[in-house]
Amino acid sequence: MAGAPVLQSDCIFCKIASKSTSTTLLYSDEKIVAFQDINPAADRHYLVIPVEHIPTVRDIQKTSEDYTLVNHMLEVGQMLLRRDAPQSLQYRFGFHQPPFNSVNHLHLHCLALPYTPRWKHLKFLSLGSLGFLEASKLLEKINPSPHIVSKV
Q1: Where is the motif named Histidine triad motif mapped on this chain (predicted)?
Q2: Among this protein's residues, is 109 annotated catalytic?
Q3: CB half-sphere exposure, 82, CA atoms < 13 A
Q4: If you classify domain 12-142 with CATH, what class do you get?
């Protein structure tokens, strides 16, 4: 993947990733950016997205490149929540699966629980192939070298 990342001009997350909006970034590197969810479901609710436009979790493949990307997204999300919500007793990391994703640009939800308000937990139920997919489950599914276990 040489050259500039692929972006879509009509994608709000591509605009955020390319720093074309006023969104405050909590983290940024050449592969990913992180920012606060505009409609938080917990005291701390961050999104970690790839700079490159990847439509949904279903576009992630069992390759070392995709595994490394998702693992990096998760590590950054964990670092941000440990830094900003150390008092939280539970964290949640995962992806909405189509048709329940709100934006067609891959994004990892990073939540420091409890949910606020409590009913928002409904958006994050794991319902098999339709619900919320835990990041750890996605990493298991796409690990190209199952004998190598993720640090997270």
Answers
A1: 105-109
A2: yes
A3: 6
A4: alpha beta
User: What whole-number distance in Å separates Cα of residue 152 and Cα of residue 134?
Assistant: 12
Per domain, the residue ranges of the chain are: 12-142
Question: For 46-80, what is each residue's pLDDT tens digit?
Answer: 999 999 999 999 999 999 999 999 999 999 999 99
What letter represents residue 81's amino acid? L
Q: How far apart are the first and last CA of the chain?
A: 25
pLDDT at 120: 83
Compute the distance between CA of residue 45 and CA of residue 64 in angstroms, rounded to an integer: 28
Rounded distance between C-alpha atoms, residue 18 and residue 25, angstroms: 11
Partner residues linked to 115 by β-bridges: 42
Angle of the 135-142 helix axis to the 64-84 helix axis, nearest 10: 160
Please pick, among 96, 109, 121, 147, the residue that the annotation labels catalytic.
Answer: 109
**Cβ neighbours of residue 30 closer than 8 Å, sequence gap 6 or more:** 51
Query: 148: pLDDT confidence band, cut at 50, 70 and 90?
Result: low
Tell me the pLDDT tens digit for each residue of 122-143: 888 876 667 899 999 999 999 9
